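Title: [Solved] Flagellar P-ring protein 3D structure

Original question kept below for reference.
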Amino acid sequence: MSSSIPFSLPGLHRALLVLCLLLAGPVQAERIKDLATLQGVRDNPLLGYGLVVGLDGTGDQSPFTVQAVVNMLQQMGLSLPPGVNLQAKNVAGVMVTASLPAFVQSGQSLDVTVSSMGSAKSLRGGTLLMTPLKGADGQVYALAQGNVLVGGAGASAGGGKAQVNHLNVGRISGGATVERSVPTALGQGDTVTLELKDSDFGTASRVVEALNRRFGPATAAALNGRVIQVQAPQQHDQRVAFLGALESLEVTPTLQAPKVVLNGRTGSIVMNQAVTIEPCAVAHGNLSIVIGSSAEVSQPAPLSQGQTVVTTRTNIDIKQEAGQLMLLPRAVQLADVVKALNAIGATPQDLLAILQAMKAAGALRAELEII
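Solution (posted by the thread starter after getting help):
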C-alpha cells in the first residue's frame, strides 16, 4: 500500500516534490497474474510505412513521401510525365505501429498508431491508405487502413476555445486487420513456466508455496529468483482452466529493497518505502546539514524497582547562512530531511547533490536512482 505526502513549495517557480512512502503495515496480497507472466505468452510489435491522404494542405513534400506516392501510382498503372515535379501538399508519409497480442486470430482487428515521419504540420482529417504491418521477421501480419483520429483537435462541444494537442500523431481504432496469427505454445509437455516481473527470491518462494498448497505437493519448483516451473495438465481445456485458477491465486510479495528515485529536471522524489538515514554531516553551498544521535538517560525513582533506560534520539540540524534554522527531533527518515530542505528553499539541484553525497558516504540506506 502506498501513499502520497504532498507539501507546499515556496513559490510557483519551485519544482513539484512528491513523496510516495510505503506506510507501515502488512503488504497487500496480489494475484499471481499481477506478479508474473507465462513464458511465451507475449505481444509482438508490428511496424509499417504508409501514406496519409486527404490533408488540408498540411502534408509534407519529403523525398521519401514523393517517392512513395510515385511508386503507389505506378502499381496502379499510372505514371508521371518526365520532368514533372510532384507537389503533393495533401499527403504525408507516416509510420504505422501496432501490437499483435498473443492468441489473436486471423480476421480480428487491432488499434494502430499513425505518426508523421516528415515535416507534415497536421494529420487531422487524413485517411491512411492500405499499409502492410510487418513483424521482426519481415513477414506481414496485419493490414492497416482507415480515418486518422487526432485527439484534442478542434473546437470544444461548448463552443469554447479549441484545445489542440500534438497534431502529428493519431490513432485508428480497429484500423488493422490481422492476416496471420503467431503460434503461441503454453509450455512444453506437462509443464508451464512462470516468470516474475521483478526478480526476487522471497517472492518466488512464496509463489511456489501458494501453488503447492493449492494444487498439491511438487506442483511448482523455483529455478531461480524469477523463473518458476509448474506441472500442468496436458489437455488443452484442462490446462486453460488450470492456468485460470493459477493466475487468480493471491500471494503476498516480499518487501522490496528501499529505493529513492529523483528526477533532476522536475525535482520529484519518489520512495517505495520509509527510507532511513544514518548519522552524517553534509555541507553544500550555503546549506549545512548535520544528522546525529544523542542518548537520553531515564533514571528510576529512589528505592524503586525500575531500571535505568537509555533512549537514542536522532536529530536533524539544517542551517542556511543568513537564513533560518530548523531542528527536527526524532527524525530518522529521509522524508523529514527533504521537508526541512524544502522549507528553507533548497532547489532540485541542491537535493540531487545532497542525496548523492549521502549515498556516497553510506548514510543513505537505499538505492539512489537519478532520472
